[in-house]
Amino acid sequence: MKKNTRKPNAVTNKNAKLRIIGGEWRSRQLPIPEVEGLRPTPDRVRETVFNWLNFDIAGAHCADVFCGTGALGLEALSRGAASCIFVDANRAAAQQLKSNLNTLNATNAEVHFTSALTYLDQGPKRPLDIVFLDPPFRKGWLEKILPLLEEKGWLAPQALIYIERESESSFDFPSHWELIKEKSAGQLTYSLYKRD
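The line above is the sequence of Ribosomal RNA small subunit methyltransferase D; the predicted structure tokens follow.
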């Protein structure tokens, strides 16, 4: 039996929009490309996550890895993040995100059309304060990505790492990462870790 690798709430509507829910660009609606398996983090989940991050976003250097629509990184920029790196291996998603950033006149963002593994293997220009990880489900991405974040020096000493994953998954996170918050919504579990 073939496993379902699609995420819940995948975008199937050509006229779908991403709504930014807080900050400078609050209520702005941006087009989303019709890409199989692509879906923005739901509004309710984003609202919870950014409540968790409320006191950490301003001035933070962020990365939105497997960014897709860029929902998490755009929300961070809207709420005062100093910068955000967006990484996605889907050309249509990366191109639409570049267009959306131009629409918003965002000059503190970079979009990289490449594999997350390839990009993270290069190492950073500067360590990151917040990393958003929202990989495709049931593909084993987190097991490959988490060691690279540490080995290549991507994380600032007190960095926060937000992770979305399938609820049934289980694996070992680095021992010096403290789980700060965690919730589940259906087949999605979302967690915030702090590097200590």
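Note on the example: Residues 91-103 form the longest helix (13 residues). The chain has one domain: 17-195.
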